[in-house]
Amino acid sequence: MRSERRLRYLFLDFNSYFASVEQQERPELRGKPVAVVPVLTDTTSCIAASYEAKAFGIRCGTNVGEARMRCPELEVVAARPKIYVAYHEKAKQVAERVLPLDQVHSIDEVSFKLLGEERNKAAACQIAVKLKEVIARAVGPYIRCSIGIAPNRFLAKVATDMQKPDGLIVLESQDLPHKLHRLDLTDFVGINFRMERRLNGGLIFTSEQLCAASRKELVHAFGSIVGEKWWYMLRGYDMGPEIHPRRSLGHSCVLAPNMRTDDACKEVLLRLLQKASARLRAEELWTESMDIDVSSPVKGWQTHLKVPPTQDTITLNEFFLKAWPSRNFQQPRKVGVTFTNLCKAEHVTPSLFDPNYDRMLLNRAVDTVNRKFGKNTIYLAGMRHARDAADEKIAFNKTWLFQEGKGDNAIVDLPDYDERPMPFYRMP
User: Fold this and answer.
1) Could you say which of 180, 195, 203, 382 is the most buried, measured as most Cβ atoms within 10 Å of its Cβ?
2) Helix/strand/coil (H/E/C) assignment for every residue in 161-222
3) Across-strand partners of 249?
4) pTM higher than 0.70, yes or no?
5) Hey, what domains does the chain have and what are their CATH numbers?
């Protein structure tokens, strides 16, 4: 059984990615505590922190005002999504000189499949060291990564979190499960605090108990057949790739201080609706429901709207404007639009006699004009003051920036950090 569970995957996780890119780009930030934020205001939250900042207890989600209190020397910088995507693309290009990419998981995570002799521990570690070397040489020495190597992708990902920063952990079949016993339940990918409470209800409180549980006990604890899958994954069996259909699509925006008014909220939400509906059409998706959210430290507002299958901006705006009079928020800080109950175009048959059909043709024409002449060449009048708001953001689970028009979000081309010729290390 152990021979069937040889090393198969190498998982690479970039450490404190956004903050590391900022330190690589800006030498004055190196060695200093750095927090990356969506907008420069103390009322927002950090979206990334350097390891120097993490030493003060600053994490993703820490309020900026609180972070400054913990670390008065904290350097707070505004996020630059285009730069992060450019470094992501550069890192992929460089990593391919060592081993072909198997899967890109997020802006800061990629995995590789090991074949033949590469599955031996010594050879796999040699590949990992080469990956670190070429990334440091071509992308930059401040772009550090942790690498996990294991019989399946799940355990390889878990291994990357066992040693940070700049770690290298190998989990062989003979290491399982005792090397996992020192982890907290929430250290496993897929176990959040809510799932941890569910497992506690199944009398599983530690990683050792999780690993020792039978398949039947795990099915009971997880509340579904997923528990049996966990039994196999924890023992190093490769369960194959997972395919997750898109369940939602949306955009959100942290409001600048001068935009935290009722009218500005409305205009930014209209801007987000136009942006999100353009993405629906670009991805050939239709939506049947829409969530509007206004976040506030005092009193927020959320509403869920059912809509007929549509990808039409005007139809979605009409539903939003009908719901807007029911708003009751105070001191808004962030707004968002999310489309759910998505379906592919082939599953929707719009009627030729439905007025929305003409609007669909209008939307396509608007998208074409904006792609040809630039973002917001044509836009809805109701968002005229906010048409330049809500620039595209890059979350950790994204690897690209949506382009609304010609030249929008063009990827920055980064030169090699070290200009000497870069050899190929691909294994024979």
Assistant:
1) 180
2) CCCCCCCEEECCHHHCCHHHCCCCHHHCCCCCHHHHHHHHHCCCCCHHHHHHCCHHHHHHHH
3) 339
4) yes
5) 1-175+400-428 (3.30.70.270), 248-383 (3.30.1490.100)
